[in-house]
Amino acid sequence: MLMLRSIRNRLRRLAPDNTGLAATEFALVAPVLLGLGLMGLELANRAIVQMQINQLAVHIADNASRIGEQSQLENRQIFEGDIQDLFYGAEIQAGSRLDLYGRGRIIISSLEVVPGTEDEQYIHWQRCMGAKDHVSTYGIEGDGLDSAFPGMGPPGEEVIAFANEAVMFVEIAYDYDPLIGNPYGIPGEIRTTASFTVRDDRDLTQIYQRDADDPESVAHCGTFGTTAYSAAP
């Protein structure tokens, strides 16, 4: 009886004691707050990377519309080295953190009008860079020569070229690397496109080599690699 009475007395003294209440509440709420904070951090990082990839696509398409050897006597010619420079510039702009060519793929397409027609669209040439195994969602080199081709872009929103002009269409596919691991990470693929009409009169017949005896490397879409320009310093 004495023991039971002692236990009851101790319980009565503990009943109004709330000195540990705040610590208990914090212990219960902390995991939720931490989870929400990590999710917010991950969402912000994903948005930043998405913006960077979008800007890269615009940057590449804009530069692709300007490249070429300027001449007052003939249309501007473009060279394989110009294409390599485009890819190398994108690699520098992206920085090492994104690992653009290790985790992604850039596809540059020249959308033009089929020779001898007024407005039939086709992909004249295509150049690619990056280790990601990805084929263009909107067409490959030669599409439009043998069948109707609406242009490049999402259905109903295709861009088209006009006669004697070309549109540089750029597509980037990139595997996002979550900043935070499971269960708060948001893995997945980022895809974006951009296009610019070629600014100056361009020789659309082909992409040239500056030196046939020492040709520059060609960024074929059947080749996969993690760096843009092996000859770069």
Any descriptors?
233 residues, alpha+beta, 4-stranded antiparallel β-sheet, elongated
Structural description of this entry:
Helices cover about 35% and strands about 15% of the residues. The chain has one domain (about 30-195). The longest helix has about 45 residues, at about 20-65. By secondary structure, the chain is of the alpha+beta class. It has a 4-stranded antiparallel β-sheet with strand order 2-1-3-4. The mean pLDDT is about 85. The chain has 4 helices and 4 strands; from the N terminus they run ααααββββ.
Q: Which secondary structure elements does this structure contain, and how are they paired or packed?
A:
Blueprint: H1 2-14, H2 21-64, H3 80-98, H4 100-103, E1 104-113, E2 121-129, E3 166-176, E4 188-197
Antiparallel strand pairs: 1-2, 1-3, 3-4
Helix pairs in contact: 2-3
Compact overview of the structure:
The chain is an alpha+beta fold and 233 residues long.
Number of strands: 4
Major sheet size, sense and barrel closure: 4 strands, antiparallel
How would the global form be characterised? elongated
* Helical content band: 25-40%
Low-confidence stretches: none
Distance linking N and C termini: 90 Å
Strand content: 15-25%
Sequence of strands across the biggest β-sheet: 2-1-3-4
The rounded Rg comes to: 29 Å
Query: Count of helices?
Result: 4
Structural class: alpha+beta
User: Would you tell me the overall average pLDDT?
Assistant: 85
Count of domains: 1
